[in-house]
Amino acid sequence: MNGALQSSSAVPLSAALRSFAAQWQARAADPLSAVREQAMRRFLDLGLPTSRDETWRYTNLRSLAAQSYVDAPRRPRGGIEPNFALSLLGESERAGSLALVNGYPSLPAAGAAIEGLEIRSLRELARVDPATLLRFLEPLSDADQKRWGLLNTALFVDGLYLKITGRVPLPLLIQHVATGDGDASIAYPRIIIEAAPGSSATIVEQHVAQGANTPLSNSTTQIALRRDARLEHYRVYATDAGATHIDALDIRQDRGSQCRQFTIVLGGGLVRTALEARLAEPGASLDSFSLLVGHEARHVDCVNIVTHGAPDTSSTQTARAIASDASRVIFNSKVIVEAGAVHAQSQQSCRGLLLSPTAEIDTRPQLEIHADEVKCAHGATTGRLDPDMLFYMLSRGLDRTTAQSLLVYAFLADVLTGMSVASARAAIEDALIAQLPDSQTLRNFR
Q: What pLDDT shows up at residue 216?
């Protein structure tokens, strides 16, 4: 059992912080206890982020801070349901699959190995090779966008370590299943992906919920791409309005590595996604795509920070946001070019579409450049449907509802064009169409 912890701050702990401290005290000691304790102490000293913190200025967490949380269960009652509302792989799709229930993995049976992949649980890795795991846990950061990551480091119990050793011929689907027995529970999923030099893979993380009570999901994925490795990575959120996701994705890229990353928000009540990438060596490139759909009272906050830490690196960030009803969508992106990162190239593009007078979209592209001879640009626009395009479609005989839906679909669909997993793209398109007016007519146009 861990010792009692107290914050060094004179401010009383909130109900949430007291419950997190109680979770810490109930954890058994393990080979990671020293770094876990450092993370927990820092988290308690810093507290939950507020709107005064730079990357949290658009998201208020007061309602979360007032809750007392307990650990989500390790398995659902009655087992995992075989089908969810959004199935990213068709029946004929050949692919590998893994599941994490509230962060606890179900590993493949002996003899069911996936070519080009080594799969281990983080609990096992901490026991037999803690040094490898500590490479990903240290150093700890006090940055406000990593605040919930400190809590995950302190309290995660298990997770997945994936070592990509060669060319993985089939996509891998990882289903994060969130399920709870009652109100105010929390899960700490964690995945570490390490791609060996010259390796390649496509990995899809899908967040789904099961049952009436959905725990808060505080998830972290860390990706390390070694020399000339290639990865296509997806994270898809498709839960109901009662779900809260706080998710962090950290990517580090070595020389010549390439990453294509898709963040798709189609569900959830409060969804906060963070992507922090470091292009650490020459030739590293990152293309990130974000499709953010606000619906009803949904709150979607997407933060991307890309650091060019070496010469001849490149990055693009493409975001499409749509907000209807009383929803709010935020895309907050930043590119940092460090001193010496000459010939770095970056492009940020965010376009927002408002479908309701009570909806809101906030975009904030930023550049921080400390090097000469770079090519960096950013742009952001938010507005309503183009009246000229709408008039043209009406003049071609389409009714107003169908014309509006087609324009909205076309506005969002270009984010999906680069997906290599055809069944995932089709499923996401279907889920997107289902949230638009006149969905049946739209399906006929596909």
A: 96
**Nearest by Cα to 188 from 228, 131, 229, 247:** 247
Peptide bond before 139: cis, by omega within 30 degrees of 0? yes
CA 99 to chain centre: 17
- Cα angle 296, 302, 304 (rounded to 5 degrees) comes to 165
Predicted TM-score (pTM) of the model is 0.93
- Alpha carbons within 13 angstroms on the beta-carbon side of residue 243 total 30
Give the C-alpha separation, 376 to 16, whole Å. 41
The per-residue pLDDT for range 17-58, each reduced to its tens digit, is 999 999 999 999 999 999 999 999 999 999 999 999 999 999
How far is CA 115 from each of CA 96, 101, 167, 295, 324, rounded to the nearest angstrom? 9, 24, 8, 40, 43
Token look-up 């626009």 returns: 381
Other C-beta atoms closer than 10 Å to the C-beta of 237 total: 26
pLDDT value for 85: 47
The residue assigned the tokens 């912890």 is 5
Q: Are 240 and 250 in contact (CB under 8 A)?
A: no
